[in-house]
Amino acid sequence: MEGKSPLDSRWIASLWKPLDALQHLFKKHRFPAFGLTLVAAILIVAILITNSSDAGDSDVLLLVSAMLTAIVGLCAYPAVNEKHRGAAVLLLCFAPAPTLVFGKRLAFAYSKLVPTRQREMVGPGAGRAPRPSPRPALAVETGGGGLAGDLRQVADVSEYHEDRSETSVTIHHGFSEEIVEKHIRENERLRIQLAGRNAENKRLQSELASALNRGAEEALLGDAAAQEAIAEARESGDLTKLKALLAAEYERHEAAPVVQTLAQRALELGVIAYLRAEWDDAWHWLGRVLSLSPKHYGANCLLGELELERGTVDQADVYFKNALDTAINAFEATPDDAKTRRDLAIVWDCVGDVRFARGTYAFALTAYESALELSTDLVSEDSENTQFRRDVEIHLNRIGNVRFARRDIEGALVAYEQCRRIAERLVALDPNDTNLQRDLSASWHKIGNCRFRQGDLEGALAAYEGNLEMAQELQANDVGRLVLQSDTCVSWMYIGDVKLTQRDWRSALACYERSVEIGKQIVAQDAGHKLSQSNLALAWFKVGMMRVVAQDRWRGIAAIERGLSIAERLSSRDQGCARWKTVLARIQFNLGRVIEDEEPNASHSYCATARQILEDLACNTDDPDVPELLTEVGDWAETVDKTDGEQ
Predict the structure, then answer these.
(1) Which of 155, 417, 440, 499 could crosslink 508 through cysteines, CB 3.0-4.6 Å?
(2) DSSP per-residue letters across 404-442
(3) What is the pLDDT of residues 498-517, one digit of tens each?
């Protein structure tokens, strides 16, 4: 049944004619379901576009959809029959929904724009300073009753937003825009304040460091008298005076430190202590250098040398690797710089020393040859430089050591002869240089070793005696230098070896005993000098064997046991030194042979231990002495087992 429209009144009569036409269309064609479906589709599309479009476009679509919904619903209601009026009523009820959404958007825009300016002009806030310009657009997502993410991260991102003229905050799920805006605004203020404080702190720190460095440098340069005294002490070679002056200067300027200057002074003090075998002082000052500059090339090299001389090979390797890293980086940065190339050559030598001590001779030879190549290039560029020529001599000496250890006696002799010729020329240029004279003395000693291995006993004895004479003369001129005393200790031992080979038992024993006395003096002065302790262990062993041969059996066994105790102590302190393990195995094996008749169980135990040490060394070194000694131990053990079986 059709009814009269409730909107049929005079004041809208003029507007009803278009609606009348639409109503007539519905009556005539009787397609109410199609019309209602069309309007519903328009609404759905409008809402979908609203959720994915910009704010301006969505507001227009919402308004248009609301109007269309209302118009179509009003026209459909009186036109359709009772069967379809329920759908028209439902359409009329749905029409206010987009209108409400649009109204909400309009109210929010009004509250963000109009009230803001009104509050600045009227009310309690009147007369205040204008508010800052709108901040960049932000998008803050919330969920589950709390802010998702850190508002500080959102504030940081806002710095890089392209649109800086629009303030737009989109909030989802529960938090009001005002609360989020308040948090973001406060976080932005704190972030800007913190950035300003950090910048100010950096500026003050830079100014303070510059002032300290400037003041310290001025103090160092202004103290001309102290600098002149240090230069004079350095030129005269008065290490005691130089040490006192450098220590005083270090303490005087420690309050206003210049890292590079203090490190250099501490390094010089460490070098002086090292040369004088004052190991505690050397550790102290070189440790100061590393505290100021952990990767300092010179300090790492000297500490590595100190560890190597004391026998702690593994720790020496750590220092040398630090120095090698620094030297390689410097060489890559300035490959043409002479000092950089020399530093790299020196540290390659040090790395070779560690590998030599571990018994990996092939690797040691590679390191020494790398160092020799660098130094040879430097000499070719500056043939008058004495230091470059001495570096070549040092590298050749080490190459000779590796060849000698690998039983390449001819190759070793060639290298040692080259060393001797270079050392003689350098000594002729500066006869008063102790280090150059010691280089020449060491060359004669190494030549003596080669001649001894070749069976030239007279030539070897002449070389050893010449070396001993030079070492004693140098020791007399520098009594406090323990390394010179160690040279005399080794010289007496090798002269004893020649006498033993010549079957001059009495002279051989006297030489070994003299070596023991010198070794005991060195250890008494410095109990931590492990190289001297190693020499002393060998000297005691050789004295003991000579006494056993001379029928002084019990004194001989006691001497061998003293040497064994030193060797065991050294080997237990540093497991990386192959030389000490070889010495330990040799002493244990020979002691086991000596006491075989009196203490067979102890004898077998010593030999078994020696065999185990040598088997481990054979897997990790390429020292030819190790398999040779291992074969000797194995042959003797088989002989003993066979004898025990027959009995």
Answers:
(1) 499
(2) HHTT-HHHHHHHHHHHHHHHHHHHHH-TT-HHHHHHHHH
(3) 999 999 999 999 999 999 99
